[in-house]
Design a protein that fits this description.
With 234 residues, the protein is an alpha+beta fold. The protein is 49% helix and 20% strand. The strands form 2 sheets. A 5-stranded mixed beta sheet has the order 2-4-5-7-6, with helices on one face. A two-stranded antiparallel ribbon has the order 1-3. The mean pLDDT is 93. It binds adenosine-5'-diphosphate (ADP).
């Protein structure tokens, strides 16, 4: 009991320090930029540039806060899930259509492969959409121009297996066990690679759990990654 409590305190301490650190960086940037701007009179154009840069940092902080609020509700307020029976084929067709639009900005092709009868699940469409778009947004983010994303649905042992594969930059093997951890980001040599808050896959995992499902990731550096979500069929 005591060691469990100690574990929880340690977790809270680490979590608070993580959140503080994540919010400190954008705030320090806003402070620094504003101080520099105030050192002398600036023209309108310069103020506009400063405002735009500050807005970007504010948006980054808002995203972190919204993701954290979402995680709290996913983990501690099960009533936010509204389960209903629905057809997976119809659901994935919608996701595919929207993914094509998002991916077209980088000339990435999106392919959908499903059986005619994909089966039905008991799920929360709103949160499952969030789950798949987190995976698809990552696939787009980490895949260079002219790449490809496959969305594949298979049925196996009364389970639906939905995989999202990309032909992107991949991840080193040693990172795979950590990618679902809160705030974890793969450290990239190429500093031009845009990175987020490291909360996206943790959100994915929480939504999968609420559906009594599982998620698996495989990846090869410079070749691509595959995420397979398994959800029980009705
Ligand atoms: P973020 O919001 O920072 O992208 P995520 O939790 O979604 O955080 O992902 C964690 C890490 O896993 C990211 O830093 C990224 O490097 C890696 N990752 C996730 N999806 C992919 C992918 N499809 N291809 C390559 N790396 C990925």
């Amino acid at each position: 009991m005591i060691s469990r409590l100690e574990g929880s305190f340690k977790y809270i301490a680490e979590f608070s320090s993580h959140v503080a650190h994540e919010l400190k960086t954008p705030l320090a940037i806003i402070k620094g930029e504003t101080e520099v701007a105030m050192r002398k009179e600036r023209n309108i154009e310069e103020y506009k540039i400063l405002n735009r840069a500050n807005l970007e940092e504010v948006e980054r902080m808002l995203k972190i806060i919204n993701d954290l609020l979402l995680l709290t509700s996913l983990d501690y307020r099960p009533e936010v899930f509204k389960f209903e029976r629905f057809d997976l084929v119809e659901f994935l067709k919608d996701i595919y259509e929207q993914s094509k639009v998002l991916a077209s900005q980088k000339d990435i092709a999106v392919i959908l492969d499903m059986p005619d009868d994909g089966g039905h699940i008991n799920g929360d469409k709103f949160h499952l959409r969030r789950l798949f778009f987190n995976l698809i947004d990552n696939a787009i983010k980490f895949t260079p121009k002219n790449g490809k994303i496959d969305i594949i649905l298979k049925k196996k042992d009364k389970k639906a297996m939905i995989s999202i594969s990309d032909t992107g930059i991949g991840m080193p093997d040693e990172c795979l066990p950590k990618i679902f951890n809160r705030f974890y980001r793969v450290d990239r040599m190429d500093k031009n690679i845009e990175h987020g808050s490291g909360l996206g896959l943790n959100i994915v995992q929480s939504i999968v759990k609420m559906h009594h499902g599982a998620i698996q990731a495989t990846s090869h550096l410079n070749k691509g990654s595959t995420f397979i979500v398994t959800i029980p069929l009705l």
